[in-house]
């Protein structure tokens, strides 16, 4: 039997995936996805869009003690749709328009039918593009790999 917390975790995981993908989408991709909804969503701004700084923390080797690596510029926005759903959008850098459109699409995606449309119009193609870019980057990185080896001179 599923507990309410298990159901909440599943919804949180799905929404986390959507917000993550929206943060990586280009402005053009976000605008194209928004045109799929007719009529366009009506919303009011709750916060922003605004730009600020966040502290980036790092770890040596992925498991060492955390340290402050530096600051990164982030834009964020929060909106409320006319039906009450609230969406949040985040973006590395200063692209406030993308942060706002991400927030709108996050709120729209909370509806089952709209999420299915958003999945086919934006999220699945976006995942494919990101995977292709990651593979290309990995191939470029592998091409620059240098193997160091030690030659034994035979003078034991």
What does this structure look like?
With 156 residues, this protein is an alpha+beta fold. The protein has one domain (4-127). It has helices at residues 4-24, 27-34, 96-108, 112-143, and strands at 43-59, 66-81, 86-92. A three-stranded antiparallel beta sheet has the order 1-2-3. A hairpin with a 4-residue loop joins strand 2 (66-81) and strand 3. Helix 1 (4-24) packs across helix 4, helix 2 packs parallel to helix 3 (96-108) and helix 2 runs antiparallel to helix 4 (112-143). The longest helix is centred in the C-terminal third of the chain and has 32 residues, at 112-143.
String of helices and strands: HHEEEHH
Q: What does the overall shape look like?
A: elongated
Mean pLDDT: 85
The helix fraction, in percent, is 40-55%
Query: How far apart are the termini?
Result: 69 Å
Q: Which regions contain 5 or more consecutive residues with pLDDT less than 50?
A: none
The domain tally reads 1
Q: How large is the radius of gyration?
A: 21 Å
SSE class: alpha+beta
Task: Give the tally of β-strands.
Answer: 3
Total helices: the number is: 4
